Predict the 3D structure of the following.
Amino acid sequence: MILGTTPADRADRAMLVSTVEAAVDRIDPADGRSERVDRDGPFDRDLWALLSGEVGIGALAVPEDRGGLGASFADVAAVLAVLGAELSRVPYLSAVVATAALTDAPASAVADDHLGRIAAGRTIVTTVVPTADTDVDFRADGTGDTVVLTGTASFVVDALGADVVLVFASSPNGVTGLYAVAAEALSRAPMPTTDATRGLSTVTADRAPAVLVDPNASISRLRDRALVALACDSLGVARRTLDDAVGYAGSRVQFGRAVGGFQAVKHRLAEAAVALELAETAVAHAVWAVEAGSDHDLAEAAAIAAIVCGEAASRTTADNVQVHGGIGFTWEHTAHRYYRRALTNAVLWGSGDDHAQRLYELTADGQARVDPDTVPRPAVALSS
């Protein structure tokens, strides 16, 4: 199912997108961005202060009754795509995932306090996202206000700049819960990464004090929400790099004609455009699944979006490098930075093969649950 929107919704969303784009252009314009990435690293504090404080993008996904704006996930997805298109070095992906985890948790003073701070732009919260339901790397000991966590996890997004880290941990009786841990109580070591615009870290807890946020947290549901958010980021990357490639192909003249007129180039770009259309559709379906679908719908839509958007971003970023020719291979050009983001997105929280296997299992499970007596039979026998 594809998400439907009214003209008013689209107009409001376009205004939101324009506001975010203007904010990025004000603080982190495209000119000189590569130099700023190399100089300042994967976190632009000035841009985040503007986006989370004045623009208020952190409040979009937080329900109104818990201190936020209660916007639709379609609005959140649009912002994620814009920030992906700009390779913005802000912890919005982390904020969206953490908000999903805290919103699904039972209402409590701890959860509501974190949600309110995220909405106001006063706190950066990240989440250790397991790649499988059984992949819980932390152990919780103790009860009540004396719980401590022990364990290690890698590939944690935005951990270095976070104030709070949400962690899935199993208790001695085998129950998995979601815990909030002050980042200063954890050891956080930056990981060498392909993508310099997104920080990844190894997080270690050695009997770190923690607070239980959700005693019955669903790892699979949170991972699906995280995959949808990541797919939106990849969609933005694919859009921008295809636009860049088409623009360059139409203006670069070789042998007396624009290179976009050569068959090898235009066929490459046409195939990339098809991949982008598939990604647009996959994200639209995933947004619907987040807002109105069942957990099974969300799981299928998340797997599809992860596969399709990952492939689209990988294709368009590689094509962008190729279409730009020699200049596209230089460190000074931004093409390689988009290619690196696509490479990272394609394996963060699971590879394409992982998502394809899960989609197969979900489909097989769905077929197993169908009552054969309810399946319509053809009116006539099929000939052999």
